[in-house]
Write a structure and sequence with these properties.
Elements (H helix, E strand, L loop, with lengths): L2 H24 L6 H30 L5 H24 L9
Helix pairs in contact: 1-3, 2-3
Amino acid sequence: MDKEKFREEAKKGIDDLFDQIEELTSKKGELKEKSKEKYNELMAEIKQIKSDLEAKYQKWEESGDSKWSETKEAFSKSADSFKEAFMHLASLFKNKPTKE
């Protein structure tokens, strides 16, 4: 995949994940109290990864072709970490528990 195509797909993927975070944030009230604690822990982790991902994307945008492969790999690893943490957060909503 060429650099420009990867960049477009990465940007779309980031935007989609950030939209999904906003959606889950709006549903936080649906969780039981015990799940809210885990939600808060995971959301703090996700916010840190999100910040790192945005920084790596910006660095990637500014990188020259000589750093393309290295930057792409670092960005992809951060994106994978973000997706994993997001999936843990989303799992809290799978059974749609009611409030306690």
